[in-house]
Amino acid sequence: MQDIAPKRETLEPIEIASRDEIEALQLERLKWSVAHAYNNVPFYKKSFDEAGVHPDDIKSLSDLAKFPFTVKSDLRDNYPFGMLAVPRDQVARVHASSGTTGKPTVVGYSKTDLQNWNNLIGRCLRASGLRPGEMLHNAYGYGLFTGGLGVHGGAEDYGLQVVPVSGGMTARQVTLINDFKPDGITVTPSYALSILDAFRAAGIDPRETSLKVGIFGAEPWTNAMRREIEDAFDMHAVDIYGLSEVMGPGVAMECIESKDGPTIWEDHFLAEVINPETGEPVAEGEMGELVFTSLTKEALPIIRYRTRDLTRLLAGTARSMRRMEKITGRSDDMMIVRGVNVFPSQVEEQLMDIGDLAPHYQIVLERENRMDTFTIHTEAASEAVDQSSRDACAQTLAKAMKDVVGISVQVQVNDPGSVERSEGKAKRVIDKRAQD
Q1: What is the DSSP string of 259-319?
Q2: Between the CA of residue 75 and those of 47, 103, 104, 224, what are the distances in Å?
Q3: Helix (DSSP H) and strand (DSSP E) numbers for the chain
Q4: Rounded to whole angstroms, how far apart are CA atoms 367 and 81?
Q5: What DSSP state is assigned to residue 14?
Q6: From CA 80, how far away is CA 86, in angstroms rounded?
Q7: Going by C-beta distance under 8 Å and a sequence separation of 6 or more, which residues neighbour residue 406?
Q8: What pTM value is reported for the model?
């Protein structure tokens, strides 16, 4: 893989500012954001008043912990536009979640918000090693999902040639990458594996493509999957983090020179980590649930938003701003099986170590005779893997899960291509217990 790390002189001054400078800017912007929310969003005025707090109580960054949380249901309860802090005629764009589990969460952006978003995406792309004049194959979904359009606008502003291919039609993805010769790709990690399968099906060596870097986000993925993708494509793989309620992609970005967890762009977002059970802040460096407060958003400020993502905050390395440990699980993705907490990422980590298994899997939870059952559906890496090898792989994975997690699981190793593929976020868990 090429050394494509950006030169230090190309970074924005705030990226390498002192901690004192960063925190002073955060405090100034935090005071504005909390007041902006309180004065212009009825939900926040009511929430703050009921909690007995006021924007004037913000004297230091630690004072934010006195304020109540915002959760996803608050956005749904104020559907569609009750969380806006500006008049509708000042909203330049609207995005929304899929709404598959209820009303969608709707977010709005002013023109200034969109420009800030573009600037942050440009910062992310530079951190990934891409340079103005190069080409980006954007396979994030376009539409109400923030991924496609969010990356697109920032990439164009940064000076990249953008191929807005979106998700789907996987064979065409291979053709365009092979013919257009892009330098980078933005895509969910699970869909990257589908594109990898399509390369191999077409008889094209993915290591011979022009791709230098893949920027992966929108779902948790492990370092084991990073190694799989980097080796398969002979390119760097870095993590971009975001969520629509806070902005979209670009809230944090892994720097290619370190690959040690996404750097949070702390001039625009204030991060906390809390105990997900009690809501209390944890000590610096402890694992917990990530909480974000926007510092510059005009149309839809967000105060202490509980992301449900599990991580820890770490000191900066490639940049002065703090990092978050790579997200590999969410509190709402956690499965409780026979009293044991299990995350899909634990399956993925063990699966990636077994060479005859493909990196595709799905977990099915059922209940038989009042007992939870846990079945991992995976597939052979190729048709050449015979039944005895498949049985051995199943035993190896089942033993690894027992050793690491402490529960017995069933493993089915099926034919290549049998596990459902994703063109966006992968559906890793099917829980049939609630249906019983």
Answers
A1: -SSPEE-TTTEEEEEE-TTT-PBPPTT--EEEEEEESS-SSS---SEEEEEEE-EE--SSS
A2: 13, 9, 8, 35
A3: 10, 20
A4: 41
A5: G
A6: 14
A7: 340
A8: 0.86
DSSP 8-state assignment for residue 123: H
Sign of CA dihedral 377, 383, 389, 393: negative
| Closest to 303 measured CA to CA, from 317, 312, 293 | 293
- In whole angstroms, what separates CA 97 from the centre of its chain? 14
The secondary structure of residue 102, as a DSSP letter, is S
Question: Checking DSSP bridges between strand 340-342 and strand 305-311, what pairing results, if any?
Answer: unpaired
DSSP 407-432: S--EEEEE-TT-SPP-SSS---EEE-
Q: Is the peptide bond before 80 cis (omega within 30 degrees of 0)?
A: yes
Residue by residue, DSSP assigns 304-364 as: SEEEEEEE-EE--SSSSSPEEPPP--BTTT-EEETTEEE-HHHHHHHHTT-TTEEEEEEEE
Per-residue pLDDT of the chain (436 residues; tens, 9 = 90+): 889 999 999 999 999 999 999 999 999 999 999 999 999 999 999 999 999 999 999 999 999 999 999 999 999 999 999 999 999 999 999 999 865 556 889 999 999 999 999 999 999 999 999 999 999 999 999 999 999 999 999 999 999 999 999 998 999 999 999 999 999 999 999 899 999 999 999 999 999 999 999 999 988 888 999 999 999 999 999 999 999 999 999 999 999 999 999 999 999 999 999 999 999 999 989 999 999 999 999 999 999 999 999 999 999 999 999 999 998 788 777 888 877 778 888 999 999 999 999 999 999 999 887 778 999 999 999 999 999 999 999 999 999 999 988 889 999 999 999 998 877 778 889 988 865 4
